[in-house]
Amino acid sequence: MSASMESKLIPDTTQDNTQPALAWLMRHPLARPLAALAVLLLIDFFLVPGFFRLEIKDGHLYGALVDIVNRAAPLMLAALGMTLVIATRGVDISVGAVVAISGAVAAILIGGKMVVIDGAPQYVSNVPMVWALCAAMGAALLCGAWNGLLVAALGLQPIIATLILMVAGRGLAQLLTDGQIVTVYYKPFFFLGGGYLFGLPFSLYIAGAMFLLLALLMKKTALGLFIQSVGINPVASRLAGIRTAALIFFVYMFCSACAGLAGLMIASNIKSADANNAGLLLELDAILAVTLGGTSLAGGKFSLVGSVIGALIIQTLTYTIYSLGVPPEVNMVVKSIVVFLVCLSQSPEFRRIFKSVKS
User: Fold this and answer.
1) What is the pTM of this model?
2) CA-CA distance, 48 to 104, in Å (whole number)?
3) Tens-place pLDDT, residues 155-173
4) How many Cα atoms within 13 Å fall on the side-chain side of residue 68?
5) How many CB atoms are located within 10 Å of the residue 177 CB?
């Protein structure tokens, strides 16, 4: 039998195996956000000189990539909390206000007064920093409890319930600071948002620890399944024995806890509390990061990894716009276009029309 006849009789399975694998990769929920991040990084590679260059100074790793990930850490925390809220068919637009409250409480309690120790002037905290951080996180948890009470117990629409705290919370932060920027002089507090550990920013360890904790809860317990169930059908979930109200109350508290921790990182990084601007529009970036990561706005389906990738996309986009000398106002326009495209991609009617036109 000739070689040509054998090649006809023996099927070539190489192409058959490659095409299903490629199709599976294209259908993967993380394919689109990873592709978007890769495109942004590719643009930076060609247009921003030295974008991928990394160097070590004083034992710390420096570079554009490190800066992007470091500045994205607060957004990662906010996006992780927002992921659980959106997965239950909710939304929390008070995240920015909680950031302002948390930062204000910590800055007021820590402050920093100068004392003379052994003949050398030093700054010390007004109260022990541990108690100040606990008070700031306690304030954030109270905000989450307020949102959870309105949504889970009183049955208010999530956007209306959190809108109350969005307005009142920032006003409360401004009252705490008298509308002024409260400067912190206590150096140990600066480590939280601007310190380094083993050469990497300490904020990355905080965001990574929160991600790992949440991932373990979602994978090793039934919490992830319960959240998906409530997001898909809350009535059926309640009839099945799931304590729907308690679960919704929990996710709003967790979201505010993540926002409070992000507020501490931001206040530590800028060494002050700015109740007017701290966390401003952070809730919109968090929602965008969650949707970019593949979490459905209709509830049920969510991805923690996708939310982290979404936060990196937003921060990389911001860095790219600033590096190219484009006016900062363009950043808001680009984000609005992205939000519009994400909403279209999640619309069943639009997908049906697109498939009919494509076919």
Assistant:
1) 0.86
2) 36
3) 889 999 999 999 999 999 9
4) 27
5) 22
pLDDT tens-place string over residues 13-62:
445 555 565 555 656 677 788 888 888 888 888 888 888 888 888 778 88
The residues with which 200 forms a beta bridge, in sequence order, are 197
Give which of 193, 246, 190 is closest to 223, Cα–Cα. 246
Q: Where are the beta strands (DSSP E) in 21-165?
A: 54-57, 60-63, 113-117, 120-124
**How many CA atoms does the CB half-sphere of 321 hold within 13 Å?**
15
Structure tokens at 262: 């992000």
Query: Between the CA of residue 222 and those of 219, 228, 229, 299, what are the distances in Å?
Result: 7, 10, 11, 17
Location of structure tokens 């965001």: 207
For residue 119, count other CB atoms closer than 10 A to its CB. 5
61: β partners: 56
Of 248, 227, 230, give the one whose Cα is nearest residue 239. 230
Kindly report, residue by residue over 262-297, the tens digit of the pLDDT: 999 999 998 888 888 888 888 888 998 898 888 877
Query: Which has the closest alpha carbon to 140: 249, 262, 267, 272?
Result: 262
Structure-token pair, residue 332? 């808001």
**In Å, how far from its chain's centre is CA 265?**
13
Distance of alpha carbon 252 from its chain centroid, rounded?
15
3 state SS of 285 = helix
Length, in residues, of the chain: 359
Q: Find all residues with CB under 8 Å of 187, minimum gap 6, and list them.
A: 123
